[in-house]
C-alpha cells in the first residue's frame, strides 16, 4: 500500500526544506499588508507605538511583495538577518508572494500560519499547501514563541 502523491506535487521532485532554527539575533518579523489601524505611524495602534518610541520599519510597497518595490532586502541583509517570520494578509496573495520572493533570495522563511488570513479558509489552506516545505516552514505562533523563548 502506498501513501499516494504528496499534497504538493513539487515535493515529489524536490526534497522538503529542513526545519529552520530560529535565532533572535538573525530573525526578523515581516508583517504583510496590515495597513492604517495596525501599522501606519499616524493612526491607531501605530500612532500609540510611535509615541511610545517604537522604531519599526514600515515600508510602503507598491507591489505584491515588498522585495520588489522597497529596500527591505538591503535593510535585512545590513542587519545580518537570514531568517524571516512572515504573517499578515492575504495568505494566498501578498503573503504568498512575499514568502516566495524571500525564499528565492535565500532567506530561511517561516510562515506563521495562524497569524495569516485569507478571504476564505480554503484559500488560506491553499496558500499553506503551495508554500509548505517548498518555499518555507509553516509553524504556529505558539511554536515560534516557544522556540524563541528557548533561545
* CATH class type of the domain at 20-34 and 64-150: Alpha Beta
Number of helices: 6
Strand content: 15-25%
Q: Main β-sheet, in a few words?
A: 4 strands, parallel
Number of strands: 4
What low-confidence regions span 5 or more consecutive residues with pLDDT below 50?
Answer: none
CATH superfamily of the domain at 20-34 and 64-150, please? Isochorismatase-like
**What is the percent of helical residues?**
25-40%
Structural class: alpha/beta
CATH topology of the domain at 20-34 and 64-150: Rossmann fold
Radius of gyration: 16 Å
Strand ordering within the main sheet: 1-2-3-4
The outline comes out as globular
Mean pLDDT: 86
N/C terminus separation: 42 Å
Helices and strands, in N-to-C order?
EHHHEHEHEH
CATH architecture of the domain at 20-34 and 64-150: 3-Layer(aba) Sandwich
Amino acid at each position: 500500500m502506498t501513501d499516494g502523491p504528496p499534497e504538493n506535487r513539487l515535493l515529489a521532485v524536490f526534497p522538503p526544506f529542513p526545519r529552520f532554527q530560529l535565532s533572535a539575533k538573525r530573525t526578523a518579523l515581516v508583517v504583510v499588508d496590515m495597513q492604517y489601524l495596525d501599522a501606519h505611524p499616524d493612526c491607531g495602534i501605530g500612532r500609540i507605538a510611535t509615541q511610545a518610541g517604537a522604531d519599526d520599519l514600515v515600508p510602503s510597497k507598491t507591489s505584491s511583495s515588498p522585495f520588489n518595490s522597497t529596500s527591505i532586502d538591503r535593510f535585512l541583509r545590513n542587519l545580518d538577518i537570514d531568517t524571516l517570520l512572515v504573517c499578515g494578509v492575504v495568505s494566498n496573495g501578498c503573503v504568498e508572494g512575499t514568502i516566495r520572493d524571500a525564499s528565492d533570495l535565500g532567506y530561511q522563511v517561516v510562515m506563521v500560519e495562524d497569524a495569516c488570513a485569507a478571504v476564505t479558509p480554503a484559500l488560506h489552506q491553499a496558500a499553506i499547501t503551495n508554500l509548505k516545505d517548498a518555499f518555507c516552514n509553516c509553524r504556529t505562533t505558539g511554536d515560534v514563541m516557544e522556540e524563541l523563548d528557548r533561545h
